[in-house]
Structure formats: structure tokens, C-alpha cells
Amino acid sequence: MNRNYIDKIYQIILDVAMIALGVIMISFFGKEIWNLASSLMDGGTSVNFYKISEMILETFMFFEFAILTREYFVQDRISLQNFIYIGITAMLRNLLVIHNDTLDMLIQAAAIALLVIVFIAYNLSKRHILTQKHHDERDGKIFTEEHPEHDF
Questions:
Q1: On the CB side of 36, how many CA atoms lie within 13 Å of its CA?
Q2: How confident is the model at residue 141 (pLDDT cuts 50, 70, 90)?
Q3: How far, in Å, CA of 88 to CA of 82, rounded?
Q4: Could you tell me the end-to-end alpha-carbon distance of the chain, in angstroms, rounded to an integer?
Q5: If I label 50, which of 36, 68, 133, 138 is the partner at 20 to 30 A Cα–Cα?
Q6: In terms of Cα–Cα distance, which of 105, 102, 124 is closest to 113?
Q7: Whole-angstrom Cα distance, residue 90 to residue 84?
Q8: How many CB atoms lie within 10 A of CB 1?
Q9: pTM for the complete prediction?
Q10: Does the keyword section mention Transmembrane (predicted)?
Q11: pLDDT digits (tens, 9 = 90+) for 26-78
Q12: Where are the domains of the chain?
């Protein structure tokens, strides 16, 4: 079997799966908005602040995952940076909603700090790789200019 043929089939399966995932995320996003609107418009019941906060945060999470599926089709990839962003924001939102246990809050704060450190390390390594690539390209051009007798 041709390798390009297998790659095309794999890409089609992946695209269909991402479309299905996007539709599911959009439907959950719509459901959460509907639930939020109906609970806010329901004047007869008492509104629990923490329950409403959880619903709002869930809505934002579905929105972010729907944006990730969109990014896949626009850029043909999902960057690691966006996953780190979502992880940081999810932990921050969770910290806002769940703050009963001090140890749990400390663990969540440590997880946020770890994600920030990973994000900084990722950006520094990405910058280093791009700088190294630029230096390699520049050195290659200088070498070919100084040694025109070599055929590369």
C-alpha cells in the first residue's frame, strides 16, 4: 500500500473525528448556556452563587475546547501552548469555585505554578530552537559564500 494513501485515510478519519468532537463541544456549550439562562431567569427559586459560578466556568471550558477544535482546522494542528493556557485557566477557575479545603487550594496553586513554569520553559526552549535554526542557516550561507567551489 502506498504511504501517501494511508496518510490521506488517516487524515480523513482524524478530520471526521475532530468535526464530531467539535459538534459535541458546541452542543454542550449550547446546553450550558441554556441551563445558565434558565436558572437565572427562574425568579421563584433561590439562586446558589456557587452553582451559578460552576455553570459559568463549565460554559467557558466548553467554549475553549470548541475553539481548540476550530484551531485544528485553521492551522492543521493544535499547539501545546493552547493546552497549557487551557490548563492554567481551568485550574484558576477551579480555584475560584472550590475553596473549602486549604490543602486542596494549596495543591491547586502548586499545579498552577507548575503549569506556569512549564509554559515559561516551553517558550524559552522554542525561542532557543528558533535561534539555533537561524544561526545554522546563517552559517550555511556564509560557508557557501566563502567556498563557491563546493557544489551543495
A1: 17
A2: low
A3: 10
A4: 34
A5: 68
A6: 105
A7: 10
A8: 6
A9: 0.59
A10: yes
A11: 888 888 888 888 877 776 556 677 777 777 777 777 777 777 777 777 887 77
A12: 1-77, 79-152
